Amino acid sequence: MIEPLAPAQPGVPPGVPPRRGPARLPVRTGTGRFLVLACVFVCAACGLVYELELVALASYLTGDSVTQASVVLSVMVFAMGIGSLAAKRLRGLAAAGFAAVEVALALIGGCSAMALYAVFAWTGDWGGTWANGPRVLLVAFCLAIGLLIGAEVPLLMELIQRVRRQDAGGAVADLFAADYVGALVGGLAFPFLLLPFLGQLTSSLLTGAVNVAAGGALVLGLFRRDLTPRARRLLLAATVAVLAVLASAAVLVDDFERAARHTVYGDDVRVALHTGVQEVVLTGGTHGRPLALYLDGRLRGGGRDQIRYHQALARPAMRGPHARVLVLGGGDGLTVREVLGRPGTHRVDVLDRDPALVRLARTDPGLSRLNGHAIDDPRVRVTVGDAFRQLRATPPGTYDVVITDLPDPRMTAGTKMYSQEFYGLARRALRPGGRLAVHAGPVDTRPHTFWTVETTMRAAGLRTAPYRASGDRGFVLAATAARPGRWLGPGERALRAGPTGLPASTLVHPRY
Q1: How far apart are CA 441 and CA 456, in angstroms?
Q2: Which residues are catalytically annotated?
């Protein structure tokens, strides 16, 4: 915990700076205090944006947002405590120290998102030690940014006391009030303004520019007499240099993102958009070039292997009554294509959380050709929304078949769709003898995840039949009554019973 400190008194032990008199301000005392508190507000907003930026980008690049948020927040809070202790030695040079902290924080925090994305893009396929490059760099940025944010508090405490001395409790109350309100504004601005309108990279650069401008303006405008002429010139030059670096990066950010994207996805990127739900990238698909669909960096469509994936997910479940089918996920239309390929399908309800993906599946020539124009089939009804909420509103016994083509269970956004409660709702939505098909993840590389899915389905009262296809892809076919019979195709193989004693995953206790 950061402990605010009052200005040092005469006669304190060596190493603690002597008490200094009130600063000679170019404005009235009340205005000076307001300007210091305004700077506290801005710094707090910028600091929280840096934190949220690291959490968001790390979750996108490596998945598992709960783990990423825990790492970022815990490491940063720890580093803030260390930074606060280290800043005690700078209290005698509070103005110069605060200016140096803001210059470093703006440069490191502003460039952190670009650096993380660059390491992910250009070293992500090197393997070995480099495979953990983004995680190592994430921790390094958390430590550096946390140290600098922690150093702000004691220095700002000293500066506000230099304007007008008051009791420590009153100074702490004023400082923390401005700090917490700034954190509120930064926390709300990131998801509702910065991220949707500027994107992750530009928003971090803009935050850095605001940060260094506020710190430089406060010191050069209010406490310039605390600095020597040489120190003022150095601070001005450093502030201008950091602003120039951040502005140059902002100008080049589109080219940088395009180059990084081509490194990740190849040189044939045709469509790349952030939908507000996920990043959607299409490569190829025209002039005879093979199409590939990536959602949040993961291949979801295109190529022979992906075709086999959708066939293995849908076709075993369609062996039996299938007049009415619910597809959860599948806004790309690829699973729907397999469902419509079976005679006797009268209606297919598709529920996806991303309207932009559904629109792309309808209008993009390459993707619509790959899905066989399934989204435009008159038997198909598309709804945009949350799968869990939709199942809760579905009357019992509505569907013959439910197919879930959802994000990996280790992704926080998808974990609740692999819970016992979710499978209980799916079971209720099925008619007697109805079937549920689930992609449960790799069997060999992540066996715990796969068998936890199967265990959770059994805990919800379903009779399960696990199988694998397309290499290491694992699936579970389940039924409401007897264990479902399986009509497996080429390359698909039934699996023996998995390990016993695994607990089911629930909403309040996810096991993935």
Answers
A1: 14
A2: 405
